[in-house]
Amino acid sequence: MELSLNSGYSIPCPGFGTFKTPDGEVCINAVREAVAAGYTHIDTAAVYGNERSVGEGVRQSGKARGELFITSKLWNTERGYDSTLRACEKSLADLGMDYLDLYLIHWPANEMQFGSKATAINLDTWKAFERLVDEGMVRSIGLSNFYVAHLEPVLASANIAPAVDQIEYHPGLLQEEAIALCREKGIVVEAWSPLGRGRLLEEPVLTGIASAHGKTTAQVLLRWCVQNDVLPLVKSVHADRIRQNLDFFDFTLSGEEMAAISSLPEARYGSHPDTATF
Ligand code: A2P
User: Fold this and answer.
1) Three-state SS for 104?
2) Which residue's CA is the nearest one to ligand 1's atom 17?
3) Span 10-54, pLDDT tens digits
4) Is the distance from CB of 30 to CB of 22 less than 8 angstroms?
5) pLDDT tens digits, one per residue of 117-138
6) Which of 9, 39, 48, 103 is the catalytic position?
7) For position 82, which CATH number holds?
8) Which atom of ligand 1 is nearest to the CA of 219?
9) Is residue 244 in contact with ligand 1, taking CB distance under 6 Å?
């Protein structure tokens, strides 16, 4: 399945995540397995420290670069115009690639850390992102962990609109405001930690629905995500789970099941962008 981006490109769904996937053989094998299983979208980030292994896994997969969609992200220490340009060059060099399909600002500069300068930093970084598109280093650009207050200034001043916002999203964290704004602006929403860092997998409402459909809880969570028009990035280092996490297009959750999943108690497993201090 593919979704259309406002940049004119399309993005495969789901994406294969690599957060916490250790650099070296584990990551190389996971990426190779993922491509063999049928993922064509791989998501990494400079801060994951595994871009070289992601690139190596892609090369070992035997797939042509043009058949794959590769995302990386700018780490927080590199925000600002010149450092962003250099950071993207380094990500490309580490991946061994000459372009990225998607480059994201990993986290917004926030007021807690940067006071009244936060917005200016984000806008400067975005200007560099636009230049990366003009120079052909990146096809589509977007954001990660940008909620409404971080998104609005970028939307107001961008020459190239963000194509994607990648945020923490799973039952218990429905992100209604950010998603409403993204829908209005034609921004594709991607979910990180769609399995709640694995902690939702034993949740009784979910295990009940999973057994009713003869599917796993992970598959129910991924299905819930796509039925809400959110693109999940799903991570595993195990070949059986890597394959299992692609196999959720052969069933449909009813309206009642969707509502029951959406009413699970509030939960956040990662940082909030307004209070992140890294
Ligand atoms: P592993 O890589 O050992 O398979 P999230 O994407 O929400 O952050 O969750 C990722 C966590 O879920 C990882 O710890 C991953 O572990 C685990 N995981 C991924 N897919 C499955 C699956 N199908 N069944 C059980 N655990 C899974």
Assistant:
1) strand
2) 198
3) 999 999 999 999 999 999 999 999 999 999 999 999 999 999 999
4) no
5) 999 999 999 999 999 999 999 9
6) 48
7) 3.20.20.100
8) 23
9) yes
77 domain-assigned: yes
Q: What is the 3-state secondary structure (H, E, C) of 174-206?
A: CCHHHHHHHHHHCCEEEEECCCCCCCCCCCHHH
The domain containing residue 102 runs over which residues? 2-195+230-235
Question: Does 236 contact ligand 1 (Cβ within 6 A)?
Answer: yes
In a domain, 66, yes or no: yes
What mean pLDDT is reported for the chain? Answer: 98
Kindly give, in sequence order, each residue whose CB lies less than 8 Å from that of residue 104, ignoring residues fewer than 6 positions away.
45, 71, 72, 73, 74, 141, 142, 143, 144, 164, 166
Number of domains in the chain: 1
Residue given tokens 């636009």 in the structure block: 130
Q: How far is the CA of 159 from the centre of ligand 1 (A)?
A: 38
Report residue 185 as tokens. 């602006």
Angle between helices 148-157 and 176-185 (to 10 degrees): 20
The distance from CA 108 to its chain's CA centroid, rounded to whole angstroms, is 15
Residue with CA closest to ligand 1 atom 23: 241
Is residue 235 lining ligand 1, measured as CB closer than 6 Å? yes
- In the residue annotation, 169 being an active-site residue is answered as no
Q: How far is CA 48 from its chain centroid?
A: 13
Per-residue pLDDT tens digits for 71-116: 999 999 999 999 999 999 999 999 999 999 999 999 999 999 999 9
